Amino acid sequence: MKIEKYSFKSESKQLLNLMIHSLYSNKEIFIRELISNASDAIEKSRFMLLSKEKILNNNIKYEIKIYLDEKNNKITIRDNGIGMTKKEVIKNLGTIAKSGTKNFIKSIKNNKKNNFIGKFGVGFYSAFIVSKEVHVNTLSIHNNKTKNSIIWKSSGDGKYSIEKSKKKNVGTDVILFLKNSENYLTNYYTIKNIIKKYSDHIDIPIKIKKYNKNNKTHEWKQINSSEALWTLEKKNISKEKYINFYKYITNDNFDPIIWSHNKVEGNIEYTMLLYIPSKAPWDIWNREKKGGLKLYINKVYIMDDVEQFLPNYLRFVKGIIDSKNLPLNVSREILQTNKNIETIKKIITKKILILIQKIDKKKYITFWKEFGSIIKEGIAEDIENKQIISNLLLFSSINTNSTKKYLSLNEYVKNMKKFQKNIYFITSDNYKSAKNNPHLEIFKKKEIDVLILHERIDEWMMNYLTEFKGIKFQSVNKFDETFDKTINKNIEKNKKKIERIKHIATKIEKILKNKIKKVNITYRFSETPVALTTDSNEMSTQMAKLFSAAGQKIPKIKYIFEINPNHKIIKMISKISNEKNFKQWTKMLFEQAILNEKGSLTEPNKFIKRVNNLLTKNIS
């Protein structure tokens, strides 16, 4: 029989070597991974027969069988699922971690004490942690008539071989030749306990061949309860079982924060078991990866990652949906047009949002750090639940004085000053830049809290979050004509000062006429001579940055040039009679304001030269 030899790609070799020699805190979960693969193969077989509208043979009894060979230190895990063709064997077993290989390698190197098995598509390769050699004999359902199977072999040394063979039944045998140090794994009770721990809930019988000393014969003993966990009564499911089931369907090593298990009856009958994870997956920002729910019809697996049941901003939610009302020959196209899907989606979305609200305060901070930025997407995406989502939002602010301390909008509103009419916020590239922005000077002085928004998504979100409980949001970066009237008790006195300095504003406006919209005299600042604001209808600086980063053309922003008449520099230049000198000071102050607003200048060398020239004039 011809044997074909192959090598793993260089990254895969490195990954396989790391897996075999890295320190895992729990080797036994290789059983969970291989049983999970066998279960998936059986579910795919069920679905293929159903989707092609074939009549299932009642004699087919799907099961997973485990052979323990203590004499030869060998374990065989057999399923009668869909099997694999040669092409599928090379694709599935010849390429380790088809996506995210580099990230996975980095994860192992950085923290070898964690279990990374099951992530990045490497579950099968956990077998090499306990095995010196692994064989896979598989017969695809497509080759059932010919009985032509494929045998895959590897010693975990970066190479593998493939050869043709014959196999009586469709399905896959995974044969593990255990390392001498792992011979305890051939013990019946050891494997039984591992299966009960990790795979008791699988809706497929898992059997082990056991020797009966009384009648001196071998007999098959079913180990797992073989019940779909979500179909059981909640009162009969322990917290530990819920958590183990979550880890089984997600391959997550961390416990979920909270979960909800409900059965809905009526015109649409379905069961949902929904989990909120405590850690975001490595690819959470891949918006092409939709959903996290598995779809079943009457306990029969249909598909993974069903996007139609979840809005995109809740894509981190994991769980099961099992319905009796959807057609068995369900396809993605049918799901998209089926009215029942929209109804279920609305109910699930509300259920998840309510579930998130139930998370206790301490755990909610953990949740927010992991998924807060994603939740913010919902403000624009889900108009129907906008108010509920608004209640979930957390912010840093002037008063929290930290990126690790948060307050909700309800807390902000509760702490508002009596004279305060708006919810104030500031957007910036980062927290430090926002916190030290000159626009906050008056707010700090008047002890008015301001929300500090420093994530990229914030500027986009605030275009849709315009009010909360009837109170409007106001950006401190935007021109606000009514603000002075709200906070300034000496408005009449300042009017006289404004009249006296109006000629300066007019001179500045003429010099900068092509660069600004207008000059405004303000008393917002205490330490800053000048700053820029945008008009209420103008694109903000932060939004312009986002558009620019995305490669989109943006219109030129004409800023409002705010000057502080109480500042020493403004008082000083108001006395300058030399037009050329006054012009240099005006341009320097404008460039200073641009630098403060944008964080950069188009021609920084000109600014530096201008500053140096002005400084040298004052050196005796």
C-alpha geometry? elongated
Helix content: 25-40%
Number of helices: 21
CATH topology of one domain: Heat Shock Protein 90
The pLDDT mean sits at 83
CATH architecture group name of one domain: 2-Layer Sandwich
What this model shows, in words?
This protein has 620 residues and is of the alpha+beta class. Among the domains are: 225 residues, Histidine kinase-like ATPase, C-terminal domain (Heat Shock Protein 90), CATH 3.30.565.10; 144 residues, Ribosomal Protein S5, domain 2 (2-Layer Sandwich). It contains 21 helices and 23 strands. The strands form 4 sheets. Strands 1-6-5-4-7-3-2-8-9 form a 9-stranded mixed sheet, covered by helices on one side. It is elongated, with a radius of gyration of 33 Å. The N and C termini lie far apart (96 Å). About 4% of the residues have low confidence.
What keywords describe this structure?
single chain, 620 residues, alpha+beta, Heat Shock Protein 90, Ribosomal Protein S5, domain 2, nine-stranded mixed beta sheet, six-stranded mixed beta sheet, 23 strands, 36% helix, elongated
Give a brief description:
The chain is of the alpha+beta class and 620 residues long. The strands form 4 sheets. Strands 1-6-5-4-7-3-2-8-9 form a 9-stranded mixed beta sheet, with helices on one face.
